[in-house]
Amino acid sequence: MALQPFSPATTATRSLHSRIFASLPLRTDPYQRRENHTRHLCVHAKVLSSTANCVRLQEGTGAFSSRSPTAKQIVKKRTGVIRFATIEEIEAEKSLIEKDVKGRMEKTIETVLGNFNAVRTGRANPSMLDRVEVEYYGSPVSLKSIAQISAPDASSLLVQPYDKSSMKVIEKAIVSSDLGLTPNNDGEVIRLSIPQLTSERRKELSKVVAKLAEEGKVAIRNIRRDAIKAYEKLEKEKKLSEDNVKDLSSDLQKVTDVYMKKIETIQKQKEKELLSV
């Protein structure tokens, strides 16, 4: 029969067996020695069983710990989970930012329109004086806030101040403006004759309109840029994912395109007014 190598359990058992019998007291009485031997064998059997079970338990514990994750490892993995915003939260953030964007873009359109109206055409229009400021009692104020402005016909404007003592400062403000108009003050009202534009002057004003339109477009782009930064901030705060930001940016570009077209439309209308004789 081939000899089998000792297992860890067998080695431990043999070592324990040697220690037990080494501890047995020497007896001269054969009967007493037999009784002691029997008693120690019973103890030995119990110890062997416990030792073997202990070895198997240690082997099993080592196998479990090498393959199974500990509670600490599980908690560590779970704490690394990132939660992005829900659809409802994304829509709420989008709604707030888009509301701000549209409000600012609408104000930009109003500003562009006001600038266009201030550009003189061949036909009299009270809005031509919208950008004229008057030094009234030491403070700059708009002309339309201290006087009534009307267009009695296609070639003249009528300025009637609420305070007649302000007529001289109003006259001075009109002369200092870039409108190229000469006021006629009769002590009651100020009349302005609107001369017909030359072909060369119309082309110059068309360039002014184009410049004003471009300034409006730059303002629209800046508003879009601010909104993109707001989305990117939410992404850094882990409230939006990269895909969310891409989708929202795409929708924002559509809104931007709408307002860009509005500026182009009113620019064409103004240029048409300037070039028509």
Automatic annotation (TrEMBL):
Coiled coil region boundaries: 224-251
Keywords assigned: Chloroplast, Coiled coil, Plastid, Protein biosynthesis, Transit peptide
Compartments in which it is found: Plastid, Chloroplast
GO molecular function list: ribosomal large subunit binding
Domain of life: Eukaryota
Location of the Ribosome recycling factor domain: 115-275
GO cellular component, one term: chloroplast
BP GO annotations: chloroplast organization; defense response to fungus; embryo development ending in seed dormancy; plastid translation
Pfam family, one: RRF
Predominant subcellular localization, coarse grouping: plastid
Record-linked InterPro entries: Ribosome_recyc_fac (IPR002661), Ribosome_recyc_fac_dom (IPR023584), RRF_sf (IPR036191)
The protein's role, per its UniProt record: Responsible for the release of ribosomes from messenger RNA at the termination of chloroplastic protein biosynthesis.
NCBIfam families referenced in this protein's UniProt entry, alphabetically: frr (TIGR00496)
Similarity comment: Belongs to the RRF family.
Protein name: Ribosome-recycling factor, chloroplastic
